[in-house]
Amino acid sequence: MARPTLFLSAALALVCSAGTVLAQSPANAPVDAQLVAKGAYLARAGDCVACHTAPQGQPFAGGLAISTPIGAVYSTNITPDKTAGIGDWSYEDFARLMRTGVTKAGYTVYPAMPYPSFSRLGDDDLHALYAYFMHGVPPAPTPNKKADIPWPLSMRFPLALWRMAFAPAPLPTSVPAEAQPTLLRGAYLVQGLGHCGACHTARGVAFQEKALTASDSAVYLAGGAAIDGWPVPSLRNTHGGGLALWSKEDIVEFLQTGRNPRSASFGGMNDVVAHSTQYLSETDLGSIALFLKSLPDGTSVPPPFVPDPKVGQDLHAGVVNGRGAQVYLDRCAGCHRSDGQGNGKAFPALAGNAVLQTSDPTSGIKIVLSGSAVPSTMKAPSALTMAPYAGLLNDADIAEVVSFIQTSWGNRSGTATASQVAKLRQSSPAVQPMTAAAFAAGRVVPSPLVTQAGTSAAQGKP
């Protein structure tokens, strides 16, 4: 639901809602307010603002730095400004870019833009998105930045070769929302506009997604990538780090609030929840959950989580076996409890947590070092924060407590080492919570298209 290294916070200012009287088009033709409202909803679903807004920049004015192995590229201005943005683009120009990655000027964009996923968007949705960006977004004269890639690596023709090798031929599909969640709608959102595979699918040697749809390969949405240093989990209905223990209701709640009884969001997923998924209708979120739960185990079948109460019973009785257990009892048990079950949705459970069922301890180390915070959303306005321990615990203590957490209560994750902690300490700044003050400052603007009940202005139909 986001793309590599693109999960930086940005503002989204929606300027229209269903029924609003909007400005006239350049041709002085009336603007379809409902179409623009639908486009605003779809822009939320695609999380377009996450890439196309720089920190402290105007919404959709581009300028966000995107790291690549050969240098940084910058997102472009997609406001209707005629000089810096796309104000002089026709619908055909816009659709060509979205589906093939080829701009109005004729060159191929860097595949940081997930056009291989967008190639599936139907004409109705593309027309709505075009209407929104032309009539629902304020123009911004922010000029585009050139990529920080040295010549000859900056030449564009290899991008066209990459497109021919790895991008599918456009296959537009229209799957409108129905009154009830549907598997087809979920597949359309996840594999298309949501471009979830851009982060949750492993990459090949040419940095291409190894699979673009569930029918391509079992590696689709099976994790394996790393985003800004965070291991990306599997979204398949599997044990060992996937969603096997999550119900459809758990998935919906997580996408709405960044938390559920089994886990809490962290890292880049916070921004996806804050800027995108919390605004989707109950029907669309239910469709996404249906699709994700339909994905079977991947190429390997990990064993299921089996609860083991012994560690919790020992801690509760004051029996402490090892330094990791002592640090956990002193620093963690007050919130996450001695049995690792957490406290409802305020403090996530650690026992059985999918993040703690893989061999990679990176996420656990980074959260202990930097702390964590769940976003403030419409349905869960409290931005709960875990304090960082980088200044309180040394590398050995953090390695011990992470190893304890990842191997207790039945968890099957790998242990951590002090050297791993030392390496991650250098690149793990303290997490800044997404608070209500951030909303007031315009960092995140609640959508006028979604009611408190989670339905869109068009009664659940985007």
Description of the molecule:
With 462 residues, this protein is mainly α. It folds into three domains: 33-166; 183-302, Cytochrome Bc1 Complex, Chain D, domain 2, CATH 1.10.760; 310-351 and 361-425, Cytochrome c-like domain (Cytochrome Bc1 Complex, Chain D, domain 2, Orthogonal Bundle). It has 18 helices and eight strands. The strands form four sheets. A two-stranded antiparallel sheet has the order 1-2. A hairpin with a 2-residue loop joins strand 3 and strand 4. Helix 15 packs across helix 17 (418-425). The longest helix has 13 residues, at 33-45.
Overall number of structural domains: 3
**Rg estimate, integer Å:** 22 Å
Judged by helices, strands and strand pairing, the structural class is mainly alpha
The global form is globular
Strand adjacency order, main sheet: 1-2
Regions with pLDDT < 50 over 5+ consecutive residues?
Answer: 1-28, 434-462
Q: How helical, in percent, are the residues?
A: 25-40%
Strand-residue proportion: under 5%
Q: Count the strands?
A: 8
Number of helices: 18
Q: H/E order of the elements?
A: HHEEHHHHHHEEHEEHHHHHHEEHHH
The major pleated sheet works out as: 2 strands, antiparallel
Distance between the termini: 17 Å
Q: Give the mean pLDDT.
A: 86
Question: What descriptors fit this protein?
Answer:
single chain; 462 residues; mainly alpha; Cytochrome Bc1 Complex, Chain D, domain 2; 3 domains; 33% helix; globular; disordered N terminus
Question: Secondary-structure map with pairings?
Answer:
Layout: H1 33-45, H2 48-52, E1 65-68, E2 71-74, H3 91-100, H4 115-118, H5 123-135, H6 157-166, H7 183-193, H8 197-200, E3 226-227, E4 230-231, H9 248-257, E5 259-260, E6 263-264, H10 269-275, H11 282-293, H12 310-316, H13 323-331, H14 333-336, H15 362-370, E7 372-373, E8 385-386, H16 395-407, H17 418-425, H18 436-440
Antiparallel strand pairs: 1-2, 3-4, 5-6, 7-8
Helix pairs in contact: 1-5, 3-5, 7-11, 9-11, 13-16, 15-16, 15-17, 16-17
